[in-house]
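Hello,

I think I submitted the alpha-D-galactopyranose job twice by accident. Can you confirm which output corresponds to this input? Input:
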Amino acid sequence: MSIVFDDSRKIFRLLTLNSEYQIKIDDIGLLIHNYYGRPACDTDMTYQIISVDRGFSGNLFENRVDRGRSIDVLPQEYSGCGVGDYRISSVGIVAKNGSHSCDLRYKSHRIYEGKEEIEGLPSVRKYDDDVTSLVITLEDKVVGLEVELHYSVFEDKDVITRHTKFINVSDKKIHLEKAASAMLDVQYGCWDEIHFAGRHCMERVMSRNKLTQDIKVISSKRGMSSHHENPFVILCDHGATEAYGECYGMMLMYSGNHKIEIEQDQAGSTRIVAGINEENFSWCLEAAESFDTPEAIMAYTKDGLESLSHIYHNIIRRNVCDRKYMDVKRPILINNWEATYFDFTSEKIIDIAKDASELGIEMLVLDDGWFGKRDDDNSGLGDWFVNEKKLDGGLKRLSDEIEKLGMKFGLWFEPEMVNEDSNLYREHPDWALVDPDRHPTMARNQLVLDMSNKKVEDYLFNCISKILDENNISYIKWDFNRSLSNVYSKNLPNKKQGEVSHRFVLGTYSLLERLLSAYPNLMIEGCSGGGGRFDAGMLYYCPQIWCSDDTDAIERLEIQEGTSFGYPVSAVGSHVSASPNHQTGRSTPLSTRGVVAMAGTFGYELDITKMSAEEKAEIKEQIASYNKYYWLIQKGDYYRLYNEEYAEIYKAWEFVATDKSEALVNIVVKKVQANARIKVIKLRGLEENAMYNLEGTKTTLSGAALMYGGFAINISYGDYPSAQLHFVRV
Ligand code: GLA
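Support: Only one job matched these inputs. Its output is below.
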């Protein structure tokens, strides 16, 4: 049993293999966050909470004579608002009488085996894992609000999931103005926060900052999780390294407007609050109605950043993504986008497919431009009907030809969008999100469809289903190429406009769910101008997401490394593209482009018909290597091989089989220097006493030597050289 309630001490202990999470009900019914850290051996951790009378930190009425007990400094499980905790609130409400106060006290709890799903939202899947769940109900009797805190413990995965349900138990309306998924108070310590910021074409770059008494906000109000701030943060010991130090992870399983706030307070305690971004959000709860927040995935380790990454990789591969992809090999694909952009014909695509199939590429993906009036990005979105002028014989002929080559066929869609210049917009202008009486803000000359409107969802379901029914399509690339603005639904009354952003996300999830239920063998790759919607919510439906529109192998080193802190390589869409690269103009060798793309789902995105015989031969070898290492890359443990020189001069990473029988080390030199230093790479994750042979050589070294002495390598000549070293246990 991984959740224990000790009635005499009034503590809940949530136990995973390597962590303990403790909650206490105090004498006035406050829910105190006692502890999250290494297992505390059945100790009530309340002794750590020392009451100090702090000026200007008030006391709840029951504690008015005990001035040390202020909710402004007590570590809490889920704070209310407006009653004396001046740190970040978890909740915001407006009660019928206009009051903004909410004072939450323990009402009841239940513990059960298993895990309930959250209606309408993706959540971490239980499968056949041992999962125990806890629901603690808090109440504010004055307002008539119940707040259920839901926890599920994935014991052997060292993960605790959380979400919150708000229930209006009064007979009056309550407005929710903020509804956090999770809050975590960490009482002591000297912490750094790590988040993953960026921009289009440079997503999820790791940013590490020491906390001071301040509030740090990681958020998006773009209607999507965004290129700019990923919904994942790490709190780590100031001295933590890849292999050492305490780390907490907080990841939101949500693809819309998010906010993660981190506050260090006057007493040096740290609070993290994560959930839907409350800006432009409000939810009207009528009597008896309830509201569920998205789920948060929390993890703790004492063993540094790589260990925290392994926890997230494991849970995402096995319990967020559809687990079947752990055992189904995904096809190596070729995508025509950077080969042709909008300028293609059936013949051109078939030529690409023919050359690709001869080299061992398994799927052709036809990107943007196959439908409606779509010769550039100004028109056509919404008209999901094949453009026969461009594709002679339609998709049927094309998909049949591709099938004849023994390849699979994939197709690009951008379902949630519409161009003004489209039949769909001309027929249904009210289906787009636009502010009445105002010109809409345009981006890529397109508007966003109102996914909160069931009719829109049905239209898209029917269009996409028709294409899937009539053609042989096994993959969809699901794109999303602008941020939301003018978020106003003509389908909802004025008082519900604050709900539209979240209802939009619910509509998208619902459409994805319906399609995957109707077509269980369909694989959907997520995309949003590259990695603008790279989050655990989308990964629930899409086992892989196009990581970035920047396909430059050297830029990808930063992007893929930042992504690796929270997300597994199996989720990272990565392709070999042309050189010079289309985004940066940089030239890199084909071999280096191959090494970088192999830290992902692997594929090609270039005009293969224009490549020389030598290049084609090299591609064939790359494909053979990727197939050889496929399971090691997809299922193995991923390590960032960090050393001092690393950031500036080179990057190295390693895949180690879970049984430690083999390891693949990858190194790419970013900055070539004359008379350079020897690069010594210290491997990780091997068996100390086992001997490992460097494949293709007579070099055999112990795991201990490779890990603690390291492997010296001298590559520093030419443009961006790289190497792949395969060590096999003998
Ligand atoms: C986005 C995607 C690209 C490509 C284009 C097509 O930018 O990230 O890969 O599909 O759209 O318009």
